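FIELD: query
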Amino acid sequence: EITGADAIHPGYGFLSENAEVAEKTAEAGLIWIGARPETLRAMGDKERARKIAEQAGVPVVPGSERIEDISSVDLETIASRVGYPLLVKASAGGGGIGMRRVESADQLLATAEATQTLARKSFNDGTVFLERYVPKARHVEMQVFGFGNSEAVHLYERDCSLQRRFQKVMVDEP
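FIELD: result
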């Protein structure tokens, strides 16, 4: 408002993934250059995004339902259905924060508790889920740019497989 801007591009990271910021921008009469708030809410929760993918017929690795309180479920039974090695993942957030690898049942409870604590501190949401860990997977992203009028273009893929602690180290773009 001070500068007379009529649009906001939030950049990348947490701000660009915040549905409330997108809504407030629109309420202020400004153009939000980013995903719609309902898309941000759907995809911002990793376990919900898994369900949407499954409903669309997209294959996903074995995983669990959301777990809000690990003390109220039979974690070992859930983990045995998912299979080891597995990841305990925070449902909220992104950027690899709140993902911890578990090799065997003896590590499960402590890792789940630590992940849930980190998720509460980082995202104000301690919900976690379990997902099978795929050791030699590739992390390939497809960049899509929409124009707000039902038209979109893809900006090709980028390989984000080189990671350290589930954080991208290098992105290989065409």
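FIELD: remark
The chain has a mean pLDDT of 87.
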